């Protein structure tokens, strides 16, 4: 795919994501995406087979962006400490700082938004959503397992459930941020999770 075609596809995806996060998948039409992205209908269907194909590509794009963000933050954390617990705590602080620096209210999580409308999608897309959430769980779980090898938890805790708390704190914070138009709710939930880990393992 040429650079121009790639740029057009990215413009369509970015425009579609913005509209879907505001109006939902069912409330977003292809015509609206075409209008906002300033392309022709033929241009849209050159890149996407239809609305469901668009949703699939949006999820893949979103998961790739998350993987890169988390990978970059953990790379920074790993350079700042050799202790597994400190690496995880630094990662959470860096993530919270990145949210805090946003100039506008975080638009929300595309995967969570599409989950509410998953009855509209086929099994392939539902599996992509599950895989995305599972990837966040496994990312944190690997870190928690490294922590637990060095430090016994002060309370009995299931590490998989503790890993899932990262997702619930982040997604819950995003919901509160949208309701109250304030990113501090995401930051607060992430830092509360960080404090919880410190209380368990320090």
Instruction: Tell me what the CATH architecture of the largest domain is.
Output: Orthogonal Bundle
Which strand-content bin applies to the residues? under 5%
Biggest sheet character: none
Instruction: Give the CATH level 1 class of the largest domain.
Output: Mainly Alpha
Q: List the secondary-structure elements in sequence, H or E.
A: HHHHHHHHH
Secondary-structure content class: mainly alpha
Q: Provide the domain count.
A: 2
**How helix-rich are the residues, as a percent range?**
over 70%
**How would you name the CATH homologous superfamily of the largest domain?**
Tetracycline Repressor, domain 2
Radius of gyration: 19 Å
How would you sum up the global shape?
elongated
**Number of helical segments with 4 or more residues:** 9
- CATH third-level topology of the largest domain: Tetracycline Repressor, domain 2
N-C termini distance: 51 Å
């Amino acid at each position: 795919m040429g650079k121009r075609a790639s740029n057009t596809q990215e413009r369509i995806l970015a425009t579609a994501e913005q509209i879907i996060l505001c109006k939902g998948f069912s409330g977003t039409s292809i015509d609206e995406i075409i209008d906002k992205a300033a392309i022709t209908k033929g241009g849209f269907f050159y890149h996407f087979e239809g609305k469901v194909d668009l949703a699939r590509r949006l999820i893949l794009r979103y998961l790739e962006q998350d993987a890169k963000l988390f990978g970059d933050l953990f790379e920074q954390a790993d350079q700042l400490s050799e202790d597994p617990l400190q690496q995880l705590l630094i990662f959470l602080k860096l993530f919270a700082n990145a949210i805090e620096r946003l100039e506008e209210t975080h638009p929300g999580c595309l995967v969570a938004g599409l989950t509410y409308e998953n009855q509209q999608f086929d099994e392939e897309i539902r599996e992509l959503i599950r895989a995305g959430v599972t990837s966040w769980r496994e990312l944190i779980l690997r870190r928690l397992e490294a922590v637990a090898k060095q430090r016994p938890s002060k309370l009995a805790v299931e590490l998989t459930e503790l890993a899932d708390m990262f997702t619930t704190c982040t997604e819950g914070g995003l919901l509160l941020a949208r309701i109250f138009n304030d990113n501090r709710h995401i930051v607060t939930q992430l830092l509360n999770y960080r404090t919880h880990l410190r209380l368990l393992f320090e």
